[in-house]
């Protein structure tokens, strides 16, 4: 068995030197799920109405099951009223619907008290993970950052967990420090010890890299942060679709995600924070519904979480987010999600390494790619690859994946790459269509 | 869009661009980049008596940016600066999805093949790069 920890792979863009050893795979165990069978596609109207499409861009946004679309409609048809404001029963019903989702999400991510009751008021609704992270960077970070302090993030961050920190560092005089992984995408204990120290006040890291698909050692980062009196922020946008989250196991102080990557509607984001920290966070937006009292010259904020939720929320979206998470967690289940995605990634990678013109970016091991495989086709610009694949009905992402510093650091040509990302609703046929299309791409340019 | 990559003309311009070389004595050079794609292009012109006597480019990028640059260089070679400006404006209008007359399409010649890019918002910048660079250069 090859020791993953000690494989030095400095060949991110040179796959001829990649090791993809069948004997090693066997020792790591093969995924056993039959991906020929797809019991889920029928739940997704777009996928079942367009069998010609192989949707392999779930890392950008998931497809929605019918139950989520119906929930959104049901909200407007049966309980539409502005939550919080009205004193009539429709408004009360809308308010309660949102409160239920708040409690549901708190329970789902382990934000519960000692008796197991959801700490619903630790759940803040906003538009997306970017906004959630901005609330922490703009509303909380300035209270703890002094000139010379350090904010630690990884080079793998999505811009949404990078630019807010650049901004707050610039404003406070703090320094933005980067964790660099090995070329297979692993942040080592040595790197953590070297970067997180007495000057560190905040550590913020993506749970799963949207480019490399690798899971970052959040609990270890949090332990190092807390040992130095710093706070741990987790960008869970790429992990909530794939795995159960527990803020206690992660030892997080703040955690952010978007509903749309986890089968929910676009435009709903969630910020979770420890109550005392949210209490110490300033609202970023002010206005309607976020106050207790207002005078001509002053205003008193409403308690957490309302003080962060200025204006009318996307109530139908929040309601449907609850339905999406019910479907993901209870109907499908994270175990099924994990098994199917592992099998899909394993099958896709084993087919991709057979193609001499495809360079896989990141780890050579299938089990290090949580749903995402980035790659390039030799000598062909990623945008051309994606445009030609589109002709074959294959939807993949191509570009810098909102992670320009990572692609710069990896030294990827054109600062761009292609990414295939799977979800449990994909099947073997989607991967076969993708592989066939790769062959098509190659032959358009190479005869 | 589907036809673009199967067009022999397009693929020929992309794979074997005749006008992609370092010019010996340009009178004008201008850089253009697409930060979102990583496309980089340096356009060189030799203008004499108000006529583009020679046009060439260097750099790298996707097939669309390369083919578009090569087609443009071929089209404006031998044209007056004023005509080059007019053709560039026509091309950019076409890529933005504006209606063009039959005569306009005829004037754009091979560049008219890129018309369907207007339906691919993500690729518009690729097609425009060389032309926007030309525009910037001639405006100076």
Question: Would you give an account of this structure?
Answer:
The complex is a heterodimer of chains A (447) and B (140). With 447 residues, chain A is α/β, with parallel strands linked by helices. Chain A folds into two domains: 4-63 and 333-446, Aspartate Aminotransferase, domain 1; 68-329, Type I PLP-dependent aspartate aminotransferase-like (Major domain) (Aspartate Aminotransferase, domain 2). Helix content of chain A is 38%, strand content 15%. Chain A contains 15 helices and 15 strands. Chain A has helices at 22-28, 45-49, 66-78, 89-108, 129-144, 163-172, 189-195, 218-227, 247-250, 275-279, 315-332, 334-352, 382-391, 404-410, 428-446, and strands at residues 54-55, 123-126, 150-154, 175-179, 200-206, 231-235, 254-258, 269-273, 291-294, 299-301, 358-361, 372-377, 394-395, 397-399, 417-421. In chain A, the strands form four sheets. Chain A has a seven-stranded mixed sheet, sandwiched between helices. A four-stranded antiparallel sheet of chain A has the order 11-12-15-14, with helices on one face. Chain A has a two-stranded parallel ribbon with strand order 1-13. Chain A is globular and about 75 Å long. Chain B has 140 residues and is of the alpha+beta class. Chain B has a single domain, classed as Sufe protein. Chain: A (Alpha-Beta Complex), CATH 3.90.1010.10. Chain B has helices at residues 8-15, 63-76, 81-95, 102-108, 121-139, and strands at residues 28-34, 39-48, 51-60. Chain B has a three-stranded antiparallel sheet, covered by helices on one side. Chain B is globular. The relative contact order of chain B is 0.20. The model of chain B has no long low-confidence stretch (mean pLDDT 92). Chains A and B meet through helix 13 of A and helix 5 of B.
């Amino acid at each position: 068995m090859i020791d993953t920890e000690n494989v030095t792979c400095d060949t991110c863009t040179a796959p001829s030197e990649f090791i993809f050893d069948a004997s090693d795979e066997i020792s790591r165990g093969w995924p056993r799920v039959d991906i020929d069978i797809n019991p889920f596609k029928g739940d997704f109207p777009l996928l079942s109405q367009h069998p010609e499409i192989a949707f392999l861009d779930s890392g950008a946004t998931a497809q929605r099951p019918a139950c989520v679309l119906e929930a959104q409609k049901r909200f407007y048809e049966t309980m539409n009223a502005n939550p919080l404001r009205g004193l009539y029963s429709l408004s009360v019903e809308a308010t309660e619907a949102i409160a239920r989702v708040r409690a549901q999400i708190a329970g789902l991510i382990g934000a519960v008290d000692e008796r197991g009751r959801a700490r619903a008021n630790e759940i803040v609704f906003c538009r997306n993970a970017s906004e959630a992270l901005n609330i922490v960077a703009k509303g909380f970070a300035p209270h703890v950052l002094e000139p010379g302090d350090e904010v630690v993030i990884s080079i793998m961050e999505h811009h949404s967990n990078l630019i807010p920190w650049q901004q707050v560092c610039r404003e406070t005089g703090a320094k933005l420090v980067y964790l660099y992984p090995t070329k297979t995408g692993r942040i080592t204990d040595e790197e953590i010890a070297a970067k997180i120290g007495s000057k560190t006040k905040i550590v913020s890291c993506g749970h799963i890299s949207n480019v490399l698909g690798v899971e970052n050692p959040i609990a270890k980062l949090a332990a190092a942060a807390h040992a130095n009196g710093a706070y741990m922020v987790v960008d869970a946008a790429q992990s909530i679709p794939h795995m159960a989250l527990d803020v206690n196991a992660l030892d997080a102080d703040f955690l952010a995600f978007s509903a749309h990557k986890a089968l929910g509607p676009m435009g709903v984001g969630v910020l979770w924070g420890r109550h005392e920290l949210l209490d110490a966070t300033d609202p970023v937006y002010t206005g309607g519904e976020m106050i207790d009292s207002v005078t001509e010259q002053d205003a008193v904020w409403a308690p957490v979480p309302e003080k962060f939720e200025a204006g009318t929320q996307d109530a139908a979206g929040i309601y449907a987010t609850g339905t999406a998470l019910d479907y993901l967690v209870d109907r499908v289940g994270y175990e099924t999600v994990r098994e199917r995605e592992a099998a899909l990634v394993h099958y896709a990678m084993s087919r991709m390494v057979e193609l001499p013109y495809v360079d896989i970016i990141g780890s050579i091991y299938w089990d290090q790619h949580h749903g995402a495989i980035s790659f390039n086709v030799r000598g062909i610009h990623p945008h051309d690859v994606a445009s030609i694949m589109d002709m074959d009905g294959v939807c993949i992402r191509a570009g810098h994946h909102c992670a320009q510093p990572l692609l710069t650091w990896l030294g990827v040509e054109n600062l761009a790459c292609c990414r295939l990302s799977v979800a449990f609703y994909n099947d073997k046929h989607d991967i076969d269509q993708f592989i066939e299309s790769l062959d098509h791409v190659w032959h358009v340019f190479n005869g | 869009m589907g036809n673009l990559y199967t067009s022999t003309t397009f693929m020929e311009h992309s794979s074997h661009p005749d006008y992609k070389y370092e010019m010996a004595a340009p009178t004008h050079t201008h850089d253009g980049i697409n930060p979102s794609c990583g496309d980089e292009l340096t356009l060189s012109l030799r203008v004499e008596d108000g006529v583009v006597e020679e046009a060439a480019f260097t750099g790298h990028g996707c097939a669309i940016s390369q083919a578009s640059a090569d087609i443009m260089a071929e089209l404006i070679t031998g044209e007056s600066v004023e005509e080059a400006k007019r053709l560039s404006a026509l091309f950019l209008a076409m890529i933005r999805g504006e209606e063009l007359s039959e005569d306009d399409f005829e004037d754009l010649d091979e560049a008219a093949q890129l018309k369907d890019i207007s339906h691919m918002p993500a690729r518009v910048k690729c097609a425009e790069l060389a032309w926007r660079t030309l525009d910037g250069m001639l405006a100076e």
